[in-house]
Task: structure prediction
Amino acid sequence: MGRANVSDRLQRLELLAAQLKQDALCTVSGLAQQFGVSERTITRDLALMREQGLPIDADRGRGGGVRLDRNWGVGRLNLAYPDAVDLLVSIEVAERMESPLFLAGLGAVKRQLIASFSPDRREKVERLKSRILIGDTASAYVQLGVSAPAGPVVQALHQAFVEQERLEIAYRREDGATSQRLVEPHYLLLQYPVWYVIAFDYLRKTARVFRCDRITEASRTDEAFSLLPRTVFENVLEGSALRL
Result:
């Protein structure tokens, strides 16, 4: 089979699986017509998909059809490691905020996620979780001025925080003045609904707090940093009433 034919078949199998996930039954003849191939080809495709573990239901007889078991996919969610880490950390934040919504069911999800990690990755996730702090709810005054951070800023900050990389940011103060900073994002602090970065600021040569929605630009430097002792940040964390 030529490379083009292989590519065509792989693409057809992907589209075929998506088609079969729909509730309506599909007939072999209808699928053959839709994809421009013979019924024999579709039959071979379905056989291959069954061999790969896809539970394809088939109704025999005139007017019968085929489709994926409508319950297929439940419990089969595959997450990339970064996505699994994000989900686990989100669950941890919800638990520490004592959020009542779905909290009872999150425990089982959390256990399955942890079990899927290797020991060294579990240790890495535990270190990451310890760097996310939960404080009191932000005051009404602060909440009135909160806006959503820009997507590229969130992405750069997230990656720099997880990978422990220095970050170049443009920061807008409350009075509107903007400055360029090189920072090490050591901790994230949530004072719902406001996120803050607890960082070492190279401009001031000391620990500083930056409100995430006031970071107007952010770019990674690919320069790693080592975590400083928490005592370095005690002064800037005073008054946040952390729930540890």
Notes: The domain at 3-68 is CATH 1.10.10.10 (Arc Repressor Mutant, subunit A). The chain is about 40% helix and 25% strand. Strands lie at 56-58, 66-68, 132-134, 165-172, 178-191, 194-201, 206-211, 215-224.
